[in-house]
Amino acid sequence: MDVRFPAIAEQLLLIERELRLQGWWDEESPGVEALSSVEPFSVDTLDFHQWLQWIFLARMKQILEQDLPLPNASGILEMAEMVYADRPKESQGLRTALKKFDQLIVDAG
After folding, report:
1. In the predicted model, what is the mean pLDDT of the chain?
2. Which CATH superfamily is domain 5-26+39-106 in?
3. Where is the YqcC-like domain (predicted)?
């Protein structure tokens, strides 16, 4: 198990918490077609918060549960900064959590 797993698991919970606090958490999954996008961040079919919830968090949970290799890089904060440029205060907690996640991925244990 990668030594970063516990810290990453905690960060994923903080990301989910921020999504819920801001009301950016959906109770129903988007359709299969929307989730099957091949575009980065599924920009053609999902809002960024939906991508975080249904693609990113789900995939990271799978990586942790199955002890799979972590990604070599992460640029999620950069995308969040673009998406939430017009809502800096509202998105501060989420962006902080995503920044810490990116740092954990870059820090190779």
Report:
1. 95
2. YqcC-like (1.20.1440.40)
3. 8-104
User: What HEC string does the chain produce?
Assistant: CCCCHHHHHHHHHHHHHHHHHCCCCCCCCCCHHHHCCCCHHHCCCCCHHHHHHHHHHHHHHHHHHCCCCCCCCCCHHHHHHHHCCCCCCCCHHHHHHHHHHHHHHHCCC
- pTM equals 0.94
C-beta of residue 14 within 8 angstroms of C-beta of residue 97: yes
